[in-house]
Design a protein that fits this description.
The chain is about 40% helix and about 20% strand. It is an alpha+beta fold.
Amino acid sequence: MEADSRPPIFTFSTCDLPRRERLDAWRAQHSGLVEFSSTSGTHDPFEMSMQAISLGQAILVNRKTLPYISPQSYRVRQPFRPFGGGNSDHYYLKLHLTESTQGYAANEVIDARAGDLYFFDSALPLDATITLGDATYVNLPRRLFPFDLSSLHGKKLSGPLFFLLSDYIRSLNFRIDSISGVDALNVGMATAQLVLACLQNDRDRLVETQSEINHLLAQRVRTFIEAHLTEPSLGVDRICKEVGVSRSSLYRLFESTSGVSHYIQNQRLQRAHAALAEPTARTIRVGEIACEHGFSNDKQFSRAFKATFGYAPRDTKKISLENIARTAPSSISVDSEYSAWILDFIGSSKR
């Protein structure tokens, strides 16, 4: 397979079929997996499409439904099948993007709403009504897992790791069209490892994938911090509550940056410095800059600023302009070549 080739993709849509044939066509595509039936007894529009992408150790399935004023629904049944091969030999995660599912998985009650992530075992019974919308499935062979996960059949997956997993699935969904065939194999392996790490309880088994989880979780926290950086209320308690991470995990993620509070302060100081150093900006009071960047105390801001940059906030624009003048290229003719300009710039910056 060439590096720039696409991974194997299967697509199907009922949209171009006659209305009366759509449910039967959809049912035929899922033969041997699940059984579908209409809940209304009428010929609903049932305009659905799906795209299944092979990622080696995982299959990502995106299913979309054209929206209608009146919600459409159908019944899905999955019979019990003995373990040990065939179509039943896999688990799957379902991320409800805009649709909902209500019913039973074996003895487990299902009440899935938009945004919920659920786990299913394809070998165990399922009887549910699905209100049509969009959903993403991640299918994984049973053999990938060194322990039995059948007890999770029909359970909602919630908590920090599963919020992270949901974000990962959405991101994968968004970028899947840019993944090459070779990259798809690595993505599939990483996906399987992440799911494995999120699902198991034995901490010893998390060692190999913990660094991947920490990286993704840290990115989630940094994104939240970036979005709320100028808000004085941003702090450890708020991050833990809104991101869904424990204090101990948050502290571990930012050990290398002297702690999460230090990281937040440093990011605020960098933004404040950029605002103060802007050559064309109007003269702004230090207290105003401090307030705009999440600092509630002018003196605290000034002390932290000087400790970080070596000079007071009020001197920032002057020092920045001096640095620009000192490193600016010497006289260069208008018709100079780009390479000459770069070489002259390098030479002047060394002087």
